[in-house]
Amino acid sequence: MSTKTSEPAILLLIDIQQGLVEGTEAWGPRSTPDFTKNVASLLEVWRSNLWPVLHVCHDATEPNNPISAKYPDTFAPHACAAPKEGEPTFIKHVGSPFVATDLPDVIKSYGDRRIIVIGMDGSECINNTTRHGADLGFRMVVVGDACASYGMTDWITGKQRDAEETHNAAMGMLHSYAIVTNTERMMLGLGYNH
Q1: C-beta separation of 119 from 150 below 8 A
Q2: Taking the chain, what is the end-to-end CA distance rounded to the nearest angstrom?
Q3: Residues 125, 67: contact at Cβ < 8 Å?
């Protein structure tokens, strides 16, 4: 019978970059109005307790994508989540940071800990990261209101789904792969204790 450690969880920040958080006019509004406040609150708790904080930034390979190191202003971390000294940052070029980075090895070096996922975009890289992490055997937790999404087009009707509808669906799809909770429950220490 295996036992689970009670070590503090790892906070994994996904793509909380200026260009993604602020978006472009073409993307429409972003979901989760309290997103940046919730990210900052969780970071404050992790940092004050000296718990592990890991950052991931997306460096797009498509030409003219603003989420690329070629565009420093939009590639840069958003102010709510800028890494501090000693907090590792991993650069990814695909949806999952578990591909072609040393993130899996770094996570394993902390022992058997839950991974708390927050960031952008709920229907894309958050989903990809969470599912991939679960497939690798990591115990994933997603804080839904410390993640955000943009709207998307329905593939059958062509109708535009708004950001909140898209985000709620994206978080709902993760229940088979992770515990999905919210910032308030995390702050109360209940977010992943079940």
Answers
A1: no
A2: 18
A3: no
Q: Are 93 and 59 in contact (CB under 8 A)?
A: yes
Tell me the average confidence (pLDDT) per consecutive run of 10 residues in the chain, 194 residues long.
Answer: 61 98 92 98 95 97 92 97 97 97 97 97 97 98 98 92 96 96 87 52
Rg of the chain in Å (alpha carbons): 16
Consecutive H or E run containing 24:
none
What gap in Å lies between CA 191 and CA 179, rounded to an integer?
A: 8
- The residues, ordered by sequence, that sit 6+ positions from 34 with a Cβ below 8 Å of its Cβ are 145, 183
Of 56, 126, 121, 64, nearest in space to 93 by CA: 56
Instruction: Give residue 119's region: left, alpha or beta (phi > 0; psi -120 to 50).
Output: left
Alpha-carbon distance of 146 to 171, in angstroms, equals: 11
Phi, psi of 110 (to 5 degrees): -85, -5
Q: Which residues pair with 179 in a beta bridge?
A: 141
